[in-house]
C-alpha cells in the first residue's frame, strides 16, 4: 500500500505523513510489536497513529471489532499528560467526539473508548478487558506492567494487540522480549533519528555533537546498548525498585536538588525509616523551569512531605536563597563527586536504598551513568563521570552523601546537631 493511499485510508488525517519504517510499524499486523527509536524519530507519533486506527477498527489492513476499548500508558502521569496524550489528541483531532478529563477517557466517533493511564502502579490497571494497549516510553516501566497488560487483552474473548514505543534504556526486559529471544508473533521496528525526514538537519547535527559513544547509539540510533563502565553496576531494578514503596510513615524526610534549565532540574525526596534505610518517594524531573517556579514546586512538595533539609547543588547560591525565602531549610550540599558516589554504592550493596517505580528518570539514569573512560577499576576512582545521564544522579548523591556524612559512622544513626 502506498503511503499516499495510507493517508487517505488512515481517516484523512493530513498532518500524518509517515515515512519508511514508521509506516511499516503503524501498518504491521502482529499482536505484539515494538518501535524502538532515537529521540525525535517519530516513534510516539507512530504509536498514536496505530492507536487511532485501532480505535476505529483497523490493525494494519485487518479489521477488528468496534466499538472497542483501548488503554494508553506512559511511565508517570506528567509524561502521560505532557507528551503521550498531547500526541494522541493532535493526530486524532475531530475523531474524538468527547474527552472526559476527570476520567482521562476519550470517546471516539464510532463509540470506541480510549483510557489514558499512568503506569507508575501497574496493579491499578487490572480489571478492564481491552482490545489493544499502547505503552509509550515503555523502557521507563517495569516488566510487571507487561504482565498485567497482556492479561487485559481479551475483549470479546479474542487475543488483542499490544505495541510499545520507546528509546532503549540498556538491555532491559524489552530487549529480552523483542530482541534477545523473541517469541512467534513479536516484531521489532528500529527508527534511527536520522531517518526522520521531517527533522531539521541542523538539529540532527547538533544532537550528533552532544551525544557520543554508546549513549549516541542508544539515543540517536535506537540501539539496545549494554553500557560498559557503569558507575553503579550494583544497581538492580528487581532489588532496588518497588511499585509498593510507601510514601508515608518515615521518621523524617530529606531532599536532594540539582539545578537545570536546558538540562533537567531535579528534586528527589527521600524518606528515612527508623533503621536508617532511605526510600526515594518523590521525583521532580523537568526542563525549562525558572528558579521561581522550582521554589514554588519545592514549597508544594513540603506540603506533601515534611522535608527537614534540602541539600542543593552549591553552584547557584542565589537559587538556594530563593528556597530559603520560601521558608525551606535549603543548604549548600557538599558535592564531592567520588566520595558521594561511594556513599550511594554502599547503600546499594547493603540494600539500604529503595526507589519508588514512580522515580522513572532516576531509575533510567542509574542504568546509564558511566565513567568517562568506559570500563572502570572499582578500586580506583581517578576518572570522572561522563556528563550525561547525571541530573538525578547528582541530586541523589547530594541527598545520600550529605545525609550520611552526618552519621556517627553507622548508617542509620542520626546526628542531631546541624551545621
Provide a count of the helices. Answer: 14
CATH homologous superfamily caption of the largest domain: P-loop containing nucleotide triphosphate hydrolases
Largest sheet: 8 strands, mixed
Strand order of the main beta sheet, please?
5-6-7-4-8-9-1-10
Residues in β-strands, percent: 15-25%
Number of strands: 17
How many individual domains?
2
- Indicate the mean pLDDT: 89
User: What is the name of the CATH topology of the largest domain?
Assistant: Rossmann fold
Helix content: 25-40%
What is the global morphology? globular
Q: Which secondary-structure class do the elements indicate? A: alpha/beta
Structure in a nutshell:
The chain is an alpha/beta fold and 419 residues long. It has 14 helices and 17 strands. The protein folds into two domains: 217 residues, P-loop containing nucleotide triphosphate hydrolases (Rossmann fold, 3-Layer(aba) Sandwich), CATH 3.40.50.300; 168 residues, Nucleotidyltransferase, domain 5.
Give the topology.
Layout: H1 3-9, H2 20-27, E1 32-37, H3 43-55, E2 58-59, E3 62-63, E4 69-74, H4 77-92, E5 96-100, E6 105-108, E7 113-118, E8 132-136, H5 143-150, E9 161-166, H6 173-180, E10 186-191, H7 201-210, H8 213-219, H9 237-240, E11 241-242, E12 252-258, E13 265-272, E14 278-286, H10 291-304, E15 307-312, H11 317-325, E16 330-332, H12 337-349, E17 353-356, H13 360-366, H14 391-404
Parallel strand pairs: 1-9, 1-10, 4-7, 4-8, 8-9, 11-17, 12-15, 14-17, 15-16
Antiparallel strand pairs: 2-3, 5-6, 6-7, 12-13, 13-14
Helix pairs in contact: 2-3, 3-4, 12-14, 13-14
